[in-house]
Design a protein that fits this description.
Blueprint lengths: L1 E3 L5 H17 L17 E5 L3 E5 L2 E5 L14 H10 L8 E7 L5 E4 L11 E7 L1 E6 L9 E5 L4 E4 L8 E7 L11 E7 L13
Antiparallel strand pairs: 1-10, 2-5, 3-4, 5-12, 6-11, 7-10, 7-12, 8-9, 8-11
This protein binds N-[(3-hydroxypyridin-2-yl)carbonyl]glycine and fe (iii) ion.
The site of N-[(3-hydroxypyridin-2-yl)carbonyl]glycine (MD6) has 13 residues, from strand 7, strand 10, strand 11 and strand 12.
């Protein structure tokens, strides 16, 4: 893992927030539900990019359209593509940017991001708004974990052995940032979903 704290200064955070607000007017936040039981998650979501991550009764997956509007997701802003290039040395651009919105009581349980075909690509996270306590474990659900605070403007890269590590957000700390004009937090995760074509691998 690599934590850049902070990575974005106040002006860059404000500019990114404006871009995310614009995306969310076109692709409104939806409430994902747990597969099978349909229990709603406490986090609300949207996406930008050719693919977006969704969860509903049928399961977790990437889809090219918004589950409520049926419209394609808005494109990933150039500013985010530039950050991906700056912080990762990955050969291909991200295809999905998941936008998570946390109200003061929202959290996300320990999980592994494993719906991507390309598990070699890192996942890059950017945080805006209130502080969050992020928990990072290992490859096994019941293994030891450590926790640290993610602040507005922080960039976190889950790469290498941490790419498939369990992680989650225990809680947010309302009122620790004034960026959003209201208590809450936005987290963006940039993901490569498909394996880039022409990739060289050991069979060649
Ligand atoms: C969050 N982040 O910070 C949730 N996933 O709100 C994630 O689930 C996450 O930060 C993959 C890689 C980095 C992350
Ligand atoms: Fe995750």
């Amino acid at each position: 893992m690599q934590l850049h704290s902070p990575y974005l200064d106040w002006d860059a955070q404000k500019a990114l927030l404006d871009e995310i607000r614009d995306i969310v007017t076109k692709a409104p936040l939806f409430t994902p539900t747990m597969p099978r039981w349909g229990r709603p998650l406490s986090v609300r979501m949207s996406n930008c990019g050719p693919l977006g991550w969704i969860s509903d009764k049928s399961g977790y997956r990437y889809e090219p359209i918004h589950p409520d509007t049926g419209e394609p997701w808005p494109p990933i802003p150039q500013s985010l593509l530039d950050i991906w290039s700056e912080l990762t040395s990955y050969e291909a651009p991200p295809e999905a940017c998941l936008i998570n919105y946390y109200s003061p009581n929202a959290k996300i349980g320990l999980h592994v991001d494993s719906d991507e075909d390309d598990r070699n690509a890192p996942i890059l996270s950017l945080s805006l708004g209130d502080d969050a306590r992020f928990r990072l474990g290992g490859l096994e659900r019941n293994g030891p974990t450590k926790s640290f605070i993610l602040k507005s403007g922080d960039a976190l890269l889950l790469d290498g052995e941490d790419r498939m590590a369990y992680h989650g957000v225990d809680r947010i700390y309302p009122g620790t940032s004034t960026l959003l004009n209201e208590p809450g937090r936005i987290n963006l995760t940039l993901r490569r979903v498909t394996t880039p074509s022409g990739r060289r691998n050991h069979s060649m």
